[in-house]
Structure formats: C-alpha cells, structure tokens
Specification:
By secondary structure, this protein is α/β, with parallel strands linked by helices. Helix content is 55%, strand content 15%. Strand 4 and strand 5 form a beta hairpin.
Length: 634
C-alpha cells in the first residue's frame, strides 16, 4: 500500500486521507451510536419493568395479606393494557400462586436469578418481594417482551447508517474541494516544471510570483533555482564541448601515434610489391618489341609477369586503402560491422610489426556483426596487436605466437581475443594498465594513451575489455561487444561480376593524363571513351556534340575543379549533370569534403576498382534508359 501511495499525486493522497478520516468517523458513528442507543433502551426497559412491578406489588399487597385471590387476579389482569406484557404471577411465601395472568408463558427456574430485574434472550423479567402489614410474605413476577425494543433498535441502526453515509459523502466532497483548493497552486508550479524539463523554457513566465503565501515562496524559489540551473547548464555544455573536443583530439593523437609506429613497416610493405611490379613491368616493356618472334613459352612468361604486376598493384591498393581509412577522421557514425573484416584491416597495418616477432594464427569462428564505427574499432584491434607484438622480443618468430580468435559467448555477444606468448604482466601493471598516460614502454615509444583510448571506445559501444596475464605466461586481451540486430551491408568488391551493358559514349575528365589513358584502355573494349585533361575543354566538347552518355570527372583539378564543373553542368545542361560520376584520390578542402558528403552515391575513390566502376556504369546507364523509356511512354 505504501509503494502504491508513493506513485499517487499529492491531491490524490490528500483526498484519500480526508476520505479515510471521514470514513473512520462514519464507521465509528455507525458502530457506536446504535449500540449506545440500544444499551440505553435496555436500561430504560429494565427500569420501567421494575417500576411497573413495584407499583403492582403495592397494589396486590392487600390481596396477599388477606388471601384474596380475586382481588389479586384483577390487579394482574391490568397487565393486558401493556402490549409488551407476557405474564404475571403473584406467589405466596411457599411459592404457590395466589393469582396468575398467562402463567403458561412464564419460563421455568425463573426464581434462580437473584436480580430484581434482568434480561434473558428477547424478554425482560422483574421480581419484587412483598412483605404485608399483616406479616405475610410473597413474590410478584412479571415478564415483558423486547420485540418492540428490537424494532426500535433496527430503526435506530438504519438511521445511523443513513447518517454515516451522509457523513461519508460529505467527507468525499469536502476532500475533493480541499484537495483542489490546496493543490491547484502547487499543480500549476509542477506543470510549469514538467514543461520546462521537456524543453519548453517559455513556460517559466506562467509562475505566479505575486502570491504572498507558501505557493508564492515556492514559485519564487523555483524561479531562482531555474536561473542557477540555466547558468550551470550553459557552463556544463561549454565544458562538455571542450571535453568532447579533447577526447576526439586524444583519439586522433593516439591514431597518429600508431601511424608513426607503423610508418616504417608500411613503407616496407608497399616497397615489396612495388619492387616486383616495377621489375615485371620493366621486363614486359623490354619484351614487347620482339613479342611477335617469341615462342609460346615466352608469351606465357610475359603474361605471368603482367599477372604478378596486377597482384602487386592490388596489394598496394589494399594497404593504401586500409591506411587511408584508418588515418582519416570519422564522424562517430555506427553501423553493423563484420569483425573479421575489421580484424583483417588491422592485421594488414600491423603485419610488419608482427612478422619479425611471432607467427600470426587466425582462429576465426562465426560471430554476429556488431554495431560500431569501423575506423575506431580497427584502432582498438590495431593497438592490441601492436601491444602484443611489442610484448615479444624480436628475432624468435618461430617460437612465439600471436593468436586472434573470435567466438560467440553464451550471452550472444561477440568475443575477440588477442593472445601473445610474451613476457606477461605483474598484478601492479595490470591494475594501472588502462590508466591514461601509464606505459611500460621506453620514453618516446609509447604515450600511455592507447589502452585508455581503446577502453573508452569499447565502453561507448556497450562492451568491455577483459584481461588475463601472468608474468612469463603471456597475455590475453578479450574485446566483448554486443551483437547488432541488423545484418552487415555488402562491401565493394564482394559482388559478382556485373553483367554486360549497352555500349555508351564516355567522357573522362582528369588532369592526370595517365589516369585518363588507363581508363580508356580498360573501358575501350565495351564503350567509346574520350579523354581530356581540362574541365573547360570538356564543357566545350559537351556543347559541340555529339552527346556523351556518361562523364567520369576528377574532383581536384587546377584550372577548374570537378565541383565547379558539376555546378556549370547543372546550370547549362542539368540532364548531363545527372550522368556524372566523380573519381577522386581524396578531399583536401572543406568545400570538397562537403561536396563528397552530399554526393557520396556518385563518388569512386582512386585507385579505382574496375569491377565496381563497370557496375556503377551499368546501373547508371540502365536507370537513364528506364527513365527515358518512361518519359517516352508518358
């Protein structure tokens, strides 16, 4: 009951209290008043019966003294005038009746009760001892019915019930009236407070500050409190903005620290494929002049060189793309993320740190996708991989191991464990490991922010980082993340090869001539491709005709940028502006970044994935053809 009353309004509780008080008074009146009236009535009946008996005893004394049965009988028959009278007996000293009126109604063993007047059941009895002047003794017994008294008692109870109901009804009305009068000013203050809490700050003007009672004092105090709250909120918002900015700067600083750590390894990773790409291309260029005279096995050798060059380019492209995604700023946007893809991205960047210290073992089991920002999650895994590598001394990679395992926990959450066979940690180090600026690395090697930042990122994702480590037995960091309710979207390059599409006229606009030439070679077998290095020249060709079906345009060009080119097309030829796809190696100005955010669906990043480019061309041409058909049918 107490728990339920806590959830009631003050007015409701006040009404309930007043109603309970009136109900208690009504119940007391209903129980006490009829009982009291009945008690008084019974006493009155006893006194009345005893009085009648004494009067009749005085009247029958001569009859008893002289043994006059007729005189005694005549006096007893006067009881018939009383509707409550039941019987009357005038007894001699030996107990034999001298006179009697309805003796058959008299109960047996009546003389055993010593009282003069008493009640048994629904009847009242009176007994009076008579001492005559002539020395005779006798007893007068009378009996009266209480039926009429009971009837009056029931009437009294009904009257009391009616009065109690009236009292209770009056109490209910009074409770609502008092509750309304007393609580209405308080309710006005609470309504204003609720509206202000929901963001309606203008409601403050409805506070009645002119009252001179307690409600006016409360409203004035609330108004002053609001002034302080607004000041504190402005201060907190300013401090939170500064903290968020500092936090973002710490995350970026940690990411840049990781990039500095990886710089030498990245250069090594890029130089390796570039070495054999350059060598293979040089070989092919040497062999091309005499290809016509080479035997078949030499043709195969040239083909193998080109294939290896293509694979090397793909490797460089993948490394550059991972670095670009990791080092770029992010907006904190979360989306369903595949953990294995994010892990592989982190592995690509940390592979040079790992390979000279330990063998990398992948132990992947199916795990659900997680709701995360992929760049920040890759930052977590990269930090943990680098820490695992740095826990192992270089030069004994065949005896050491870094194991990455993925599991689905019993609670349905995804678990990613990174285990190393390094030196392990003491309890003192484990206790301070996630403290900002704490590091066990030499000065200039670590900032002490990595694990602290990692813990902050994982905590904001609703997860946690678990640690198991013993000195001399290595360490295991386990990242636990809640599963995402939505599936992971498809990624570029995972689709099947696009189907053939109709041949189209394509205009390539790029200030780098080799990019335009490469695109012409790649697309010339399926489309008619024209290349220009200047945006103004492209506008001239578009005005002179013949028309082009698709325009591939670079964003960053010296004379006229892709943004300016697109704006000019929208002004002069809006139908051609709809057929523009942008190719970009990166956005370096605020204008370009804002433009790319607005036109993400039209953008393709360099180095270009040719399968993705062909698919975008196919979709664009088919959508344009279907819209043209719809216009023609209309």
């Amino acid at each position: 009951m107490t728990l339920e009353l806590r959830h009631l309004s003050l007015r409701a509780r006040l009404v309930i209290l007043v109603v309970l008080l009136f109900a208690a008074f009504s119940l007391f009146f209903l129980l006490f008043f009829p009982a009291r009236m009945n008690d008084l009535a019974r006493r009155g009946m006893l006194e009345r019966t005893l009085g009648i008996a004494r009067l009749l005893a005085n009247a029958t004394e001569p009859a008893l003294d002289f043994g006059d049965e007729a005189n005694g009988q005549r006096h007893l028959e006067t009881l018939a005038s009383s509707p409550e009278a039941i019987f009357g007996l005038l007894l001699r000293e030996d107990g034999t009746p001298l006179a009697a009126w309805h003796p058959e109604r008299a109960p047996k063993r009546l003389l055993d009760d010593p009282q003069e007047a008493f009640i048994r059941g629904q009847e009242v009895f009176a007994r009076v001892h008579i001492q005559t002047r002539g020395g005779q003794r006798g007893t007068l017994l009378l009996g009266f019915s209480l039926a009429r008294l009971q009837q009056e008692n029931r009437h009294t109870q009904q009257l009391a019930a009616g009065i109690s109901a009236l009292i209770l009804a009056s109490g209910v009305l009074a409770a609502f009236a008092v509750g309304t009068v007393l609580v209405r000013p308080l309710k006005r203050v609470t309504d204003v407070a609720l509206r202000i809490s929901e963001g309606e700050h203008d409601a403050r003007g409805e506070l009645d500050l002119t009252r001179r009672d307690e409600m006016g004092t409360l409203a004035s105090a609330f108004s002053r409190m609001l002034d302080r709250l607004y000041e504190q909120r402005a201060l907190i918002e300013s401090q939170m903005s500064e903290l968020r900015s500092a936090q973002d700067q710490l995350i970026v600083a940690d990411r840049r620290t990781s990039m500095g750590t990886l710089a030498a390894g990245v250069a090594h990773e890029i130089n390796n494929p570039l070495a054999y790409v350059t060598a293979n291309i040089h070989y092919v260029l040497q062999e091309i002049p005499r290809l016509r005279h080479l035997p078949e096995e030499d043709w195969e050798e040239a083909y193998s060189a080109l294939t290896e060059a293509r694979e090397g380019c793909a490797r460089v492209q993948h490394i550059v793309q991972s670095l670009k995604s990791f080092s770029a700023g992010d907006d904190g946007k979360r989306e369903p993320t595949a953990l294995t893809h994010t892990l592989e991205s982190a592995i690509n960047m940390a592979s040079n740190e790992i390979r000279h210290r330990a063998r990398l073992v992948r132990d992947y089991q199916p795990v659900p996708p997680v709701e995360a920002n992929e760049v920040r999650l890759a930052q977590v895994f990269l930090n943990l991989l680098i820490n695992a590598a740095h826990a192992i001394e270089p030069g004994a990679s065949e005896r050491n191991e870094i194991r990455i395992s993925t599991r689905t926990g019993e609670d349905g959450r995804a678990r990613v464990s990174i285990t190393d066979t390094g030196s392990g940690m003491t309890p003192e180090v484990r206790a301070r490991l996630f403290t900002p600026f704490f590091t066990t690395k030499p000065v200039g090697v670590g900032t002490g922010l990595g694990l602290s930042v990692c813990q902050g990122i994982v905590t904001r994702l609703g997860g946690q980082i678990e640690l198991q480590s013993e000195p001399g037995h290595g360490s295991t960091f386990t990242v636990v993340l809640p599963a995402s309710p939505a599936p992971v979207g498809s990624r570029p390059g995972e689709e099947a090869p696009p189907p053939k599409t109709r041949r189209a006229r394509i205009l390539v606009v790029d200030d780098e001539p080799l990019v335009g030439t490469a695109l012409r070679r790649a697309l010339d077998c399926d489309h008619e491709v024209r290349v220009t290095t200047r945006a103004r020249e492209a506008l001239s060709q578009l005005r002179q005709g013949p028309p082009f079906d698709v325009i591939l345009c670079d964003l960053m060009m010296p004379e006229m940028t892709g943004v300016e080119f697109y704006a000019e097309l929208q002004r002069t030829a809006p139908e051609l502006a709809e057929m523009v796809l942008f190719i970009t190696g990166g956005a370096f100005t605020e204008v370009t970044r804002a433009f790319l955010e607005q036109h993400q669906a039209r953008a393709l990043e360099k180095p270009l994935d040719m399968r993705a480019l062909r698919e975008r061309l196919r979709v664009l041409l088919e959508s344009h053809a279907s819209s043209s058909t719809s216009t023609f049918m209309g």
